[in-house]
Every structure is written in C-alpha cells, then in structure tokens.
Amino acid sequence: MSGLRPRVITGVALAAGVLAAILLLPTALFLLLVLAVLLLAAWEWSRLMGVEEKPVRILYLGLCLLAGFVALDHVLTLERLWPVQAGVIWWALVVVLLAVYRPGGPGAGSPALKGIAGVLTLVPACVALVVFHSLQPAWLVFLLLLTSCADSAAYFTGRRFGRSKLAPHISPGKTREGLFGALAATLVLGLAGARYFEVHQGLWFYFVALCLVTVLLSVAGDLFESLIKREAGVKDSGQILPGHGGVLDRIDSVTAAAPVFLMGLLWGGILAR
Question: What secondary structure letter does DSSP report for 50?
C-alpha cells in the first residue's frame, strides 16, 4: 500500500497538470513545455544507451533539441509533415524488431544506434503533440484518454484473466488477455469519440479502426522501451516521478501513438490543417 499511494498521488497530479497545460496554454508555451519533456526524456534515454560520461549525455541532449527545432520548423513554418511521417515509418520498423527480438541475440544495437532510435522515438512524437495542440487541443486530450484507458483496461483485464504472455522475452507482465481488454475499451471509446467529434458516418469504421491501430502501436511503444531497459539492465528509466519511475516510463505509449494517430486523422480527412 505504501508504494501505491505515491503512485496514485503522482498520477493524479500529472493528469491534472497535463490537462491544464493542454487546455489553458497557448501553443507557443505548450511547445516550450513539450521541449522540456523532450530534454528530460533524452537525458534518461542517454543513460539507457549505456553512456555514463556527462559531457556526452549533454551533447546528446543538444542533438535531440536541435532535431526537435528543425522538425518543428518544417512542420509549423513550412507545413511539411515528413518528421511525423518518419515517426510512422519508424514504428512500423519497431514492430518488426519486437517480433524478431530474442534475448541473447544481437540486441538493440550499439550506443550510437540506440541514440538514433531515441531521436526517432522522441522527436516525431513531440512534433505530433504540438501539431495537435495548434489544430485542436481536444484531439490531444482524446489521444491521451485513448492510451491511458487502454493501459488501465489492459492492466485490470490482465490481472483478472491473464494467462498467455504477450511478449515474455521483453515484458513478462503483459498478457494477450490484457491486450484484448485494451482493444475492447478502445472500441467503446472510439465509438464515443466518433460521436463527440461529429465524425462523418461514412468514416466511423475508419476512425474506430484508427483508434484500434493507435492503441496497438502504443503497446509497441511500451514494449520497445521495455526492450531498451532490458538491454540496459534497469527496471525504470529514471526516478523523477515518485511511484512511476522516469519520464520515459510515462510517455512510452504516447511516443508511438501520437504520430500514428495524427497522420491517420489527416490521411482520413477527419482533421484538416
């Protein structure tokens, strides 16, 4: 119980803070907040790369920040979506990596490759969050609700009915039954979202399917961070959030979900720039 209390308190405080930031901050200030989260997450990622030297870790932070500025400039100023599209392609590759990963194999690569993976994981997601906020913050709230509800449904369904491991070599706690519970919750939330956002009836099937795919990719994001942590031999990415671990431990699902959901909405014509 002692470990549950700080987790609940931190979770409630985070949820309230994030919701207030999304709904109350102008996009310029929200962008600065996202960049701050990017720096914190990049610092934790540099540790998972196996880099101990602080100057090298600081250099990696600078590279991530530079990549974030370049990507945001192309999207917000030049209206080019390639940084977000690159994120979609990256997560498709990650799904393949997760499918073939085996302990004792080649692993997740050298520190340099892990560093590139960190940029591809963090930067497109941060750009997608800012784009969502600039277009319609309510969509960003829905995305976070989608991933958090799916995560909670997976946890409780897995605790009650879990028998078959989803990815025992990467995250032994996750079960297929938990995944089915997450998809069931997503189906209900997707239908509610289609109604709330007044999605054209002819696009309801597409929208719900997009929500399901987004949640599946959010699971991939969670598993990929677990893989990186396994390779690094650590349980949590950091200790900055009492009861939760690090920043990466809280945003791993969103890093994969945000680019996929944004591009899906734009490709389907549900969200217009």
Answer: T
Residues 6+ apart with CB under 8 A from 244: 7, 10, 11, 14, 250
Q: Whole-angstrom Cα distance, residue 107 to residue 110?
A: 9
18 contact partners, CB below 8 Å, separation of at least 6 = 144
Q: Is residue 131 part of a domain?
A: yes
The distance from CA 255 to its chain's CA centroid, rounded to whole angstroms, is 2
Distance (Å, whole) CA 166 – CA 226: 13
Give the count of domains, the chain. 1
CA end-to-end span of the chain: 47
Question: Which residue(s) pair with 175 in the sheet?
Answer: 165
CA distances from 4 to 34, 71, 84, 155, 199 (A): 28, 38, 36, 15, 39
**Ranges 6-10, 45-49, 85-89: which has the least confidence:** 6-10
Domain range for 150:
4-267
Structure tokens at 164: 């078959």
Give a yes or no: residue 227 inside a domain. Answer: yes
Looking up tokens 């349980």 gives: 235
Q: Is residue 81 in a domain?
A: yes
| Residue tagged 């032994």 (tokens) | 172
Where are the strands (E) in 82-178, listed by range?
A: 165-167, 171-175
Residue 142 lies in a domain: yes
- Quote the mean pLDDT of the chain: 91
pTM: 0.93
pLDDT at residue 75 greater than cutoff 50? yes
The pair of three-digit structure tokens given for residue 241, joined into one six-digit string? 């959030």
